[in-house]
Amino acid sequence: MTADAPNMAGEGVRQDLTSSRIGLLSSPTPVAKAAEDMLRRRYQWSAVDDADILVALGGDGFMLQTLHQMLEGGRSRPVFGMNRGTVGFLMNEWRLDQLAERIATAKAIRVAPLEMVATTVSGETFVHAAINEVSLLRETRQTAKIEVLVNGRVAMPELACDGVLVATPAGSTAYNLSARGPILPLQAKMLALTPISPFRPRRWSGAILPDDTAMCFRVLEPENRPVSAVADQFEVRDVAKVDVTLDRERSLTLLFDPEHALDDRIAMEQFTT
User: Fold this and answer.
1) Domains with residue ranges and CATH for the chain
2) Which residues are catalytic?
């Protein structure tokens, strides 16, 4: 077999992706690692730290982890995900061939994260970003009681509930949809404010607010009715107050095959049953 003749596994001379400075990341699952091994045999890659574009292999959880690492590191790079997880809503289809061509013709989708500033009962302050949603959740069997402020004004003096969440358009099809919140088109420039199992007012289904809205949640009776705040996977327990705003200055870029782009997929979720 000559050096440039493909073998039965489809291998030949590796295609060089270093001229475009593309790096490769994968989740630690066996399926993702197997896919990484195939891609490393097929293509030559730039080091991740030197790359201008990243390819991420895994599921939605790994994509969120990758995006959060960029937010924490202060360096944002476009990410082309391929699904080697479960749902893969934020990912493209897994294919071994024509990767450079797919990346070159990909549709860029920009998403802005939420910023959560959570203050605990003891006075500590924690700041975390959320790409999907910020959730407030009761910690015990006791119903949470939460005062809701919108742009500094009390919009709801007392919401008795299991919790409440704020979702971005990108996250509106995740936990927000499970809580019967609205699906927001990616270009809507809106945020979803959605109660989780509301007890009083029982019929309140939430609100759709402009994405420049500043929201504040004050926990009533925090000692007797403790509440945690979660920004994607980052949890802060025993909160007294949570402020949520959209952070446009730290927007992130996801790359999608044009026929499988995130904005179209979110829109089509409105027709699933």
Assistant:
1) 15-111+251-271 (3.40.50.10330), 114-249 (2.60.200.30)
2) 60
